[in-house]
Amino acid sequence: MGQPPRNRRERLRKSVWIGIWLVFLSSPVHDLASGNHTTGGTVAGWLGLAAFVGLYLALVFRNMGRPYARWVIGGLIVVLAALATLLCLTLGSAWLGLYCYVSVACGMILPLQLAYWAIPATGGVMLLVGLQVGEEDALNLLLLVQLIGFAMTGVSQLIRTTIELRRARATVAQLAANEERLRLARDLHDLLGHSLSLITLKSELAGRMLPGHPDKAAQQVADIEQVSRQALVDVREAVTGYRRPRLAAELAGTQVALTAAGVTAELPTDPDLTGVLEDSESALAWALREAVTNVVRHSGAQRCTVELLRRQTLDGPTLELSVEDDGSGGSGKAPGNGLTGLTERLEKAGGTLEAGRTKHGFRLVARVPAPAVADVGSAS
Predict the structure, then answer these.
(1) Which residues pair with 318 in a beta bridge?
(2) Phi, then psi, of 84 in degrees rounded to 5
(3) Are the beta carbons of 142 and 100 closer than 8 angstroms?
(4) Whether 289 contacts 282, CB under 8 Å
(5) What's the CA gap between 76 and 128, in Å, rounded?
(6) What are residue 355's DSSP bridge partners?
(7) Please, which residues have CB within 8 angstroms of residue 334's CB and are 6 or more apart in sequence?
(8) Which whole number is the average pLDDT over 97-104?
(9) Considering the entire predicted model, what is its pTM?
(10) What is the DSSP string of 122-190?
(11) What are phi and psi of 271, to 5 degrees?
(12) pLDDT over 60 (residue 30)
């Protein structure tokens, strides 16, 4: 919503949504088909109606992508209103419904403050025209013209808000990435700054002692080796912590990924990870990442449901992650490299993996051992 169609499917969906509102053309079409006008009048009516609809669709479709300049939009809406007025005055009250489209264009495309004036003005013009061609018909349409115009201002505001939220979400993601880079830089400085400074100092001392005191120089070299080994251990531990995914972070990323792919997501809001080991949580996070990647890339699903439940099994309490979609892809018989790797990760954490087709799509279930919640914390 609020963006140009990215593919044929979205273009068809938007076209159907816009086409529904063409129902108000039924009265002009019936008037032309009834034979109430001369041949010249009928031909002119069809041409005028085609021009009106083409101008309206150009305004609405263009507003979904890169909009016209403001002065162009204002000019086109004036032309649209003038064409509706001309057709009503020449062909009769059956054409008063065209002002509904003028009102929709004002509410959808014009800035909010300007639309608040343009919509009542559209109703006023319709009433003036109705005094000439059919006052009762104009009065019957007046409320509809006002309501539909102001309703479209709400839709327009919703679209603008959606666009702003998308931009804000992208900004937050960028800020989070920058913060993570800064944290990484701080951690590396804290880990390696002191060690590298000590190595540099001891290297200089060893260089000075080497000609006259080789035994002391050797001791300095041994100290350098010890410090460097410890620094290597610290770096490996830090990198392991960075690479270990967290389930809460993966759930947040899943919401963003599925929403961006146009998939309706149902996710647990507050996952209970009490007492779950880091290796087990990491294995579930990898499973969620792989499952969601398959949903986005291969399934063609419209809905994806993620559940995180504690279950009591014959092997003891387990934490179960279930990812189910209604897509038709990913039906290959042999497991892919991703599922094979997930199985190995879960086996290392003492867990299991099940994946396969269902009646309505595809389902992946990952299980890891988890202590009972009642056994964690204070006894009660």
Answers:
(1) 311, 369
(2) -60, -40
(3) no
(4) no
(5) 21
(6) 364
(7) none
(8) 88
(9) 0.49
(10) HHHHHHHHHHHH-HHHHHHHHHHHHHHHHHHHHHHHHHHHHHHHHHHHHHHHHHHHHHHHHHHHHHHHH
(11) -65, 135
(12) yes
Residues 6+ apart with CB under 8 A from 163: 2, 3
Question: How large is the angle between the packed helices 70-91 and 112-133, nearest 10 degrees?
Answer: 10
Q: What span, in angstroms and rounded, lies between the C-alpha atoms of 79 and 102?
A: 10
Which spans in the chain are helix H? 8-20, 26-33, 39-64, 70-91, 98-109, 112-133, 135-209, 214-243, 247-260, 278-294, 337-348
- Whether residue 223 contacts residue 201, with contact meaning beta carbons closer than 8 Å, is answered with no
Q: What pLDDT digit, counting tens, does each position of 174-190 carry? A: 887 788 778 777 777 76
Q: Cα–Cα distance between 166 and 73 in angstroms, integer?
A: 25
* b (16+ CB within 10 A) / e for 207-232: eebeeeeeeebeebbebbeebeeebe
Percent over 70 (pLDDT), the chain: 87
| H or E segment and range at residue 369 | strand 362-369
pLDDT in tens, 285-311: 888 888 888 888 877 888 899 998 888
Tokens of 49: 């109606």
Closest-CA residue to 322 (of 287, 283, 280, 370): 287
Q: CB neighbours of 58 closer than 8 A, spacing ≥ 6?
A: 76
230 pLDDT tier (thresholds 50, 70, 90): confident
Distance separating alpha carbons of residues 130 and 99, to the nearest angstrom: 11
DSSP code of 373?
G
How many whole angstroms separate alpha carbon 196 and alpha carbon 188? 11
The 10s digit of each residue's pLDDT in 34-72 is: 878 888 888 998 999 899 888 888 887 665 555 667 788
Structure tokens at 281: 């949580």
Which amino acid appears at position 310 of this protein?
A: R
